[in-house]
Design a protein that fits this description.
This protein is α/β, with parallel strands linked by helices. Helices cover about 45% and strands about 20% of the residues.
Length: about 375
């Protein structure tokens, strides 16, 4: 337990800057309510910084991230800013690999008071977490592509026993925690073991890990079938674990089940460091218009507070996490705010003000 936690803040590009600014306002309001102390410091990185300086991730920024208690991240990347190989400048991947942040955690749940894209009343029960292996898989090929003239390119997927074991253990431990909290306590392995030897190996490792968690029900499913069933009956899922690329795609799909990326927080967690960020991108088409939904970013702050609580055995962080979660949920439930993706007109500032007002009300 610490008296003050140092948070490295990387606003990044596009709406990342806007939702980060909103999160910092809320953090400032939260601290006196719950008696916690978070020292935030912003650092430069991203596609625009690359255009301005030629460096997408300065060494000073990376050093600060390594020394911080947690990293709060906006969004990075711009479609028109690309490297020599034609791919986007996205230093968030460099941060993941540098700090070995192997568990990409993408929780999704339905918020009371918000319209659901799904017609079934069971959609009110959506509450699941996708755990994405974030250091291997097809993303391992980034920067290692084998291009042979203008005829063909090879990108190689890498699946290791150690990498798969640790993310599977993470998923099962998360399922144990969720079961204690009253949720299903199940883990679904998502792969393509019928086609790829690498995925057959992944499944073999998953099943071996599963034997160590006899109280948790586990199952296997192919990624295409999971994509179908996530649309038809997402309320049946609890914890899912999958390879990097599959997780990248499915995390956007599950966000759509509850209204969009503005409701999708995330964390990339390793043994010693963690990054917390909204799952959405920089959305340059709406940047500067004040309409970005900051909810995903604020829920990422909730995840950060929970992680700090667990890591440092700090009950005050848990109290702060629940207070922020309630302050965000209640205005939606009462119909006091409705953002653009749900057909409303409340923008970044409106949501931020309402959450801060709710925090102040809770303190009374």
């Amino acid at each position: 337990m610490k008296s003050t936690y140092n948070i490295a803040v990387l606003p990044g590009d596009g709406i990342g800057v806007e939702v980060t600014h909103a999160a910092l306002k809320v953090i400032d309001a939260l601290q006196p309510v719950c008696g916690i102390h978070l020292q935030t410091q912003s650092y430069a990185a991203g596609a625009q910084h690359y255009l301005d300086s030629g460096d997408a991730l300065p060494k000073a920024t990376l050093k600060a991230c390594g020394e911080a208690d947690a990293i709060l991240f906006g969004a990075m990347g711009l479609p028109h800013v690309r490297g020599k190989d034609g791919t986007e400048i996205i230093p968030q991947l460099d941060i993941r690999f540098h700090f070995d942040l192997y568990a990409g955690v993408r929780p999704i749940r339905t918020f009371p008071g918000l319209p659901s894209p799904l017609s079934s009343p069971k959609a009110a029960n959506i509450d699941l977490v996708l755990v994405r292996e974030s250091t291997e898989g097809l993303f391992y090929a980034r920067g290692r592509g084998d291009r042979r003239g203008d005829e063909e390119v090879f990108d190689t997927q890498r699946i290791t026993r150690v990498g798969t074991e640790r993310v599977c253990h993470f998923a099962f431990k998360l399922a144990e925690q969720r079961k204690r909290e009253g949720r299903k306590g199940t883990v679904t392995n998502v792969d393509k073991a019928n086609v790829f030897e690498s995925m057959a190996f992944w499944r073999e490792v998953f099943e071996r890990v599963a034997k160590g968690y006899p109280e948790i029900q586990s199952s296997n499913a192919y990624v295409d079938a999971v994509a179908l069933n996530l649309v038809l009956k997402p309320w049946d899922f609890d914890v899912m674990v999958t390879e990097n690329m599959f997780g990248d795609i499915l995390s956007d799909l599950i966000a759509g089940l509850v209204g969009g990326m503005g409701m999708a927080p995330s964390a990339d967690i390793g043994d010693n460091h963690a990054v917390f960020q909204p799952a959405h991108g920089t959305a340059p088409d709406i940047a500067g218009k004040g309409i970005a939904n900051p909810t995903a970013m604020l829920l990422s702050v909730v995840m950060m507070l929970d992680w700090l609580a667990d890591r440092h055995n700090d009950a005050s962080m848990r109290v702060a996490s629940r207070a922020l979660e309630r302050a965000l949920e209640r205005p939606f439930a009462r119909g006091e705010i409705l953002t653009a993706e749900f057909g409303g007109s409340d923008g970044t500032d409106a949501v931020t003000r309402k959450v801060i007002d709710e925090l102040r009300a809770l303190s009374k």
